[in-house]
Amino acid sequence: MEAGPEDFVPPPECPVFEPTWAEFQDPLGYIAKIRPIAEKSGICKIRPPADWQPPFAVEVDNFRFTPRIQRLNELEAQTRVKLNYLDQIAKFWEIQGSSLKIPNVERRILDLHSLSKIVVEEGGYEAISKDRRWARVAQRLNYPAGKNIGSLLRCHYERIIYPYEMYQSGANLVQCNTRPFDSEKDKEYKPHSIPLRQSVQPSKFNSYGRRAKRLHPDPEPTEEDIEKNPELKKLQIYGAGPKMMGLGLMAKEKCLRKKGGPECPPTAVVKEEMGIDLKLETSFPKTFMDGKEELFHSMEPCTKMTMRLRRNHSNAQFIDSYACRLCARGDEDDKLLLCDGCDDNYHIFCLLPPLPEIPKGVWRCPKCVMAECKRPPEAFGFEQATREYTLQSFGEMADTFKSDYFNMPVHMVPTELVEREFWRLVNSIEEDVTVEYGADIHSKEFGSGFPINDSKKHLSHEEEEYAASGWNLNVMPVLEQSVLCHINADISGMKVPWLYVGMVFSAFCWHIEDHWSYSINYLHWGEPKTWYGVPSFAAEHLEEVMKKLTPELFDSQPDLLHQLVTLMNPNTLMSHGVPVNKRSLQYYGLAYYLVFLCCQLPAGRQCIEHYRRLRRYCVFSHEELICKMAASPEKLDLNLAAAVHKEMFIMVQEERRLRKALLEKGITEAEREAFELLPDDERQCAKCKTTCFLSALACYDCPDGLVCLSHIDDLCKCPRSKQYLRYRYTLDELPAMLHKLKIRAESFDTWAGKVRVALELEDGRKRSLEELRALESEARERHFPHSELLQQLKNCLSEAEKCISQALGLVSIQEQRVDLPRLTLEELQAFIEQMSSLPCAMHQIGDVKSVLERAEAFRVEAQKALAELPASLPLLPGLLERAQQLGIEVPEAKQLRRQMQQCYWLDEVRRTLVPPAQRGTLAVMRRLLALGANVAPSPAVDKARTELQELLNIAERWEEKAHLCLEARQKHPPAMLEAIIHEAENIPVHLPNILALKDALAKARAWIADVDEIQVRTVAVFYWGTLVISLPFSVSSKTTSSYEIREREGKDSDKAYLNDRR
């Protein structure tokens, strides 16, 4: 039964790759990198970097093409088998004068093919009827139970299928000399030629209208129709179901009955003479049904002739001349029928099933009916449309069709809906949806979607970049790493890309690429396209499943999958264990299957053998490709040379065997032939259609044909002396070519041996750096493949060059005294060990060792000086200068620097604090403390830092006291201020606030002195005013405040510190 849209389950998605710009620069290298992953799914998608957007280079206004017509339900293999079955059974009934109308059961078309197949699987009509298992048949056809559908199916089977099956089985035929279409000529399948793949000319008789008529009821017959047809008037039967053979309800192919048209060839000529017996002269034997048009010739002459013979059945000679082919008797002559196809005679009661009476009109015997029904079907292909489109007109047509079909705007139709609807349509025998597909459009003639450097059009700078890109499908096949670059011919679809313009539901069917190569496709613009892929390891399984499910198609077209005209539902394949993956490609998506690389050469040879068995034309000669690459082995990379050598060895061995067999047949004549200069159609084997190159067998008397050496018995019937060998190379030249390939392929082994000896020091001698560089250059120039050994050589050279650069840096540091990063002593020792372990000799290692020796000598002197401190203190600057010249870091140099820092810091502290040194400021003391924090600790340093910190604390405290006194918040007696100043003078630090307080005290004393002098001289007393003076102390205070007590306590502690210092 056909699947509904909800029944289709999309296959899993294939992997998607996103190369970086660096990876994208090497197309074939990147494809080879992802191939192990992509081959597992059979298809993958490569999404280019976002900035890679080639312009669409087709000239839209001048681009015109004629598409192909695709009827969707004929694409699917199982649906096509059903339709072919309906064609055959319809032809069976039409030959006998009845129209086939397929009945409806439970509101759907009865699947006659499935019904016939299930009946056979269940044991046949008799067994099912005997066991009353028609209900099971209905169940297997997915009809509901309990509605007596089994009986209805039995009725339809008996009326429509059973007579046809009986004819097919030959149960009603006599053992006689028949003329079925089973000769070798008819059996031989002639495949499509390569230029016409996927395309056939329209049939002279359109079968699609007939199919459509079967699915729709005929209009009711009018009274006039009934009056004109006596049988219809008699039976009043119309619609589906067979009629009695020969009792057609309407004359078939009325359009062929034209006045003055050709009459049927007479089956017999009857001459009547007066009073003399009839003499029957049989005409020449006639081959039945040379074409479909012979089936329905004008019926009037034939009917008159045959009916005249039947009316004359009383004649004795007539009775003696004609006998029933089944019972071999001539009695019951009134029930003897004459076949209008082969002139055989049958009793109506001997036929199976028997006829109740002699039919009128054209009647065919069972033998002729079977021969016509078993005629091999024509090779299926797509018809060419009659209308030519531009891209604009085709797009408008496609958009209109899609929007009308889905009843919504084009851009709103989901891809998933289109996918489900497509697989529903291809599985339907009722709905005949037709679409158009512009396929295999030659890009050289119509233009490529990519820019091309062909001097016909000026390209911009951006277009030139895309025209030269390896991802341009015009460029990729001819890249240096591609095998296809060795083929001179421009092979469309392989070296020259094809263009495809599709619409909704258009399809590119399941197929294996020519020569089993890989394929790559780029979607320039438009709506998404869904691809389905099967990995190569499952290709044979896919073909086996399709042959198992639809053997009828492969019987008539053995190379069906090479014709690109057949689909099978992915769910059906997956249910039989075939792994299927899919990917919907959006605009600017790159779809990739893989590319024909050297690893495919064995597969190419196997493909040629497969083509031989199918008698299918080759796209190019595999032998020619191998020999052309073998002729220039120096141009091949190593992997390709090795692969070609293996293929060439097999070819040479096979050619020796074939030529030896030729000699044993007595063929000794031979001529050299440059087969590559001949067109392919002039060097194809007449038997297997393969393209010859190394050799072929020809005949002097039959110059138009030749065969490959595998079919020397199929050339002609001429004697062997007339036959001769045409060869391209002698058996001495082929081994010479093979030897050159071997040298090229084994050059890597020779080179690898040299590298291995050099790197592993097998002979105990270190190579110079120049020798290793020469080996690396040889690998690059000869295109040796990247290998682990080559990587080791590159790593060794890289490491040696780094060592040399580092060694030169050490020397430059010593000579120029530049400030560069320095090695430690341990790193220098490891560096020397590294240079010693390298398999190449480097003279710079002597300079590095001398640096190490000087460093060791310096260490001895530095350790001695450090042990004799402080007596050796004057030696430290000189030692540090020598350490700077060494160019490396030694541990003793660090210790020397620490000692020098300590000495410099302690000396500065001493100069700052010890009298009669000039008093330092608070900032100086803070700086000394900060520097002391970075000086390496020692007892002297710790003591000096402690004294500095205590002195700084005291100085800051006295500064704070002076600051408070200067603020005049509290009055202080001059005596206390004098005590503060006196104590602060003992601190060896410059204190600004103490100095300011001292200056204020001096000014106050001068003022007091002035006041005392005034008081002594003045005797007058003034009553009208009061003089108020604000001073920072109390002039006549007799008491001591709490503040003064605290001051005294502080002074006592400071005195203790100062006394300690004194």
From TrEMBL:
<dbReference type="GO" id="GO:0034647">
    <property type="term" value="F:histone H3K4me/H3K4me2/H3K4me3 demethylase activity"/>
</dbReference>
<protein>
    <recommendedName>
        <fullName>[histone H3]-trimethyl-L-lysine(4) demethylase</fullName>
        <ecNumber>1.14.11.67</ecNumber>
    </recommendedName>
</protein>
<feature type="domain" description="JmjN">
    <location>
        <begin position="14"/>
        <end position="55"/>
    </location>
</feature>
<dbReference type="Pfam" id="PF02375">
    <property type="entry name" value="JmjN"/>
</dbReference>
<dbReference type="InterPro" id="IPR001606">
    <property type="entry name" value="ARID_dom"/>
</dbReference>
<dbReference type="InterPro" id="IPR019786">
    <property type="entry name" value="Zinc_finger_PHD-type_CS"/>
</dbReference>
<dbReference type="InterPro" id="IPR013637">
    <property type="entry name" value="Lys_sp_deMease-like_dom"/>
</dbReference>
<keyword id="KW-0677">Repeat</keyword>
<dbReference type="GO" id="GO:0005634">
    <property type="term" value="C:nucleus"/>
</dbReference>
<dbReference type="Pfam" id="PF00628">
    <property type="entry name" value="PHD"/>
</dbReference>
<dbReference type="InterPro" id="IPR013083">
    <property type="entry name" value="Znf_RING/FYVE/PHD"/>
</dbReference>
<keyword id="KW-0863">Zinc-finger</keyword>
<dbReference type="Pfam" id="PF02373">
    <property type="entry name" value="JmjC"/>
</dbReference>
<feature type="domain" description="PHD-type">
    <location>
        <begin position="321"/>
        <end position="371"/>
    </location>
</feature>
<keyword id="KW-0223">Dioxygenase</keyword>
<keyword id="KW-0862">Zinc</keyword>
<dbReference type="InterPro" id="IPR001965">
    <property type="entry name" value="Znf_PHD"/>
</dbReference>
<feature type="domain" description="JmjC">
    <location>
        <begin position="465"/>
        <end position="613"/>
    </location>
</feature>
<dbReference type="InterPro" id="IPR036431">
    <property type="entry name" value="ARID_dom_sf"/>
</dbReference>
<dbReference type="Pfam" id="PF02928">
    <property type="entry name" value="zf-C5HC2"/>
</dbReference>
<dbReference type="InterPro" id="IPR003349">
    <property type="entry name" value="JmjN"/>
</dbReference>
<keyword id="KW-0560">Oxidoreductase</keyword>
<dbReference type="InterPro" id="IPR048615">
    <property type="entry name" value="KDM5_C-hel"/>
</dbReference>
<dbReference type="InterPro" id="IPR011011">
    <property type="entry name" value="Znf_FYVE_PHD"/>
</dbReference>
<dbReference type="InterPro" id="IPR004198">
    <property type="entry name" value="Znf_C5HC2"/>
</dbReference>
<dbReference type="InterPro" id="IPR003347">
    <property type="entry name" value="JmjC_dom"/>
</dbReference>
<comment type="similarity">
    <text>Belongs to the JARID1 histone demethylase family.</text>
</comment>
<dbReference type="GO" id="GO:0006355">
    <property type="term" value="P:regulation of DNA-templated transcription"/>
</dbReference>
<keyword id="KW-0408">Iron</keyword>
<dbReference type="GO" id="GO:0000785">
    <property type="term" value="C:chromatin"/>
</dbReference>
<dbReference type="GO" id="GO:0008270">
    <property type="term" value="F:zinc ion binding"/>
</dbReference>
<keyword id="KW-0156">Chromatin regulator</keyword>
<dbReference type="Pfam" id="PF01388">
    <property type="entry name" value="ARID"/>
</dbReference>
<dbReference type="GO" id="GO:0003677">
    <property type="term" value="F:DNA binding"/>
</dbReference>
<dbReference type="InterPro" id="IPR019787">
    <property type="entry name" value="Znf_PHD-finger"/>
</dbReference>
<keyword id="KW-0479">Metal-binding</keyword>
<keyword id="KW-0539">Nucleus</keyword>
<dbReference type="Pfam" id="PF08429">
    <property type="entry name" value="PLU-1"/>
</dbReference>
<dbReference type="Pfam" id="PF21323">
    <property type="entry name" value="KDM5_C-hel"/>
</dbReference>
<feature type="domain" description="ARID">
    <location>
        <begin position="79"/>
        <end position="169"/>
    </location>
</feature>
